[in-house]
Amino acid sequence: xxxxxxxxxxxxxxxxxxxxxxxxxxxxxxxxxxxxxxxxxxxxxxxxxxxxxxxxxxxxxxxxxxxxxxxxxxxxxxxxxxxxxxxxxxxxxxxxxxxxxxxxxxxxxxxxxxxxxxxxxxxxxxxxxxxxxxxxxxxxxxxxxxxxxxxxxxxxxxxxxxxxxxxxxxxxxxxxxxxxxxxxxxxxxxxxxxxxxxxxxxxxxxxxxxxxxxxxxxxxxxxxxxxxxxxxxxxxxxxxxxxxxxxxxxxxxxxxxxxxxxxxxxxxxxxxxxxxxxxxxxxxxxxxxxxxxxxxxxxxxxxxxxxxxxxxxxxxxxxxxxxxxxxxxxxxxxxxxxxxxxxxxxxxxxxxxxxxxxxxxxxxxxxxxxxxxxxx
Length: 376
Fold this sequence. Notes:
- The termini are far apart.
- This protein is of the alpha/beta class.
- About 30% of the residues lie in helices and about 25% in strands.
């Protein structure tokens, strides 16, 4: 082969190599760009929280119990949460405090109130579009440890996610990893468990962290100082929202470092009392904006004033959004409780959209005692 032919062949081979490299390089770039765009894409998730759901009764109660209502409704489990379906079914994740047990085993514990329900009552949750529950409360073992084990099993079988104490969960909701932490503080263990629990969900890749805490004093409309300290620590450790339970009455909301705290959600679908005088409740709903694996938007929330019953004469175990003067009364009540926690103007959903309730410097109304005494 002549020198000229060798030179030509060299340049041909060299040119092909450059072309192949160029093609390979340009093929990689869209992938890198796509990954970058994916990281920069904003995603939204709407989460709804409600209060104490006791799907059962105490064997010592008389008539008019939740199981009686199940029979009255011909076992139509959709009856119980149908009035809140516009909120629960159209969000991305609904969470309640499951206060009681679902079991056919175990012995009633020696306590003032102990609750259990038929395992079929999981259908109240599933038909009501409730996807997750916290079990970190003082009624999760009302019929012994076996009753808690049964409750977890029946919830799992129904596809309802449960979480409590160091049994944290990280679930994928519409492409967003949500960390669920439920802490029990009546024995003052929450502060010690919180760092590990939050670290667990972080290690699980959680982009959004929700912390629910069982705390406080029954019948009190204002949180104790240690509750506020605990809530602030949760946010300092990475919580994006803190929701409280146990007092069985409403408490106020606080905004701390841009994150929301609802100190007590009150009762909701509550089989623990056939006719409590204070039937006020609420739904808390927030839409989070997540970008690059972190929450970047916290402003989009609303509170929906509710009653635990659709009738005032008794508890029919059908939580219902309030309207008219009742909605205004409950909203103003929550605002008064919140005024004692800071300068927040709570965003309430009114009949014509989200609005602020009136702020008041007056003392909060005195909590009303229940006919059946407070639940311990």
